[in-house]
Amino acid sequence: MALEVLRSIEAAEARAAEIVAAAQREARDILKATEEACAVNERNAALEHRALQQRILADARATANRSIAAAEAGEHAEREAVAAAARAKLDAAAKLIYERVVQDGHR
Questions:
Q1: Across residues 75-97, what is the average pLDDT?
Q2: What is the pTM of this model?
Q3: Partner of 54 at 20 to 30 A CA spacing, among 17, 30, 36, 93?
Q4: CA-CA distances (angstroms) from residue 8 to 11, 15, 21?
Q5: How far apart are CA 4 and CA 1, in angstroms?
Q6: Can you tell me the distance from the alpha carbon of 53 to that of 61, in angstroms, rounded to the nearest whole number?
Q7: Distance between CA 71 and CA 27 in Å, rounded?
Q8: How many CA atoms lie within 13 A of 90 on its CB side?
């Protein structure tokens, strides 16, 4: 009778050891799967972050290019206005210069 009790205790301990080993394997598998999922999520987040940075940079470049183009257009218009004003006064300036040169030449 004592031998049977001892054998049943040993069998129960063996089953308990198997259950513990199975639980440890399952815990390792869960941990490994979780770590892999985290790594995938980190890679995806990094890719999304990189894509967001690229979009932000592209938007900033486009905004800067539009500002530069607008400034260049404004400066071009201003230069054209100054050149047109100078062209309008060119004949009068040439006449004034000619008259002064001719007057100074008779002294």
A1: 91
A2: 0.53
A3: 36
A4: 5, 10, 20
A5: 5
A6: 12
A7: 65
A8: 7
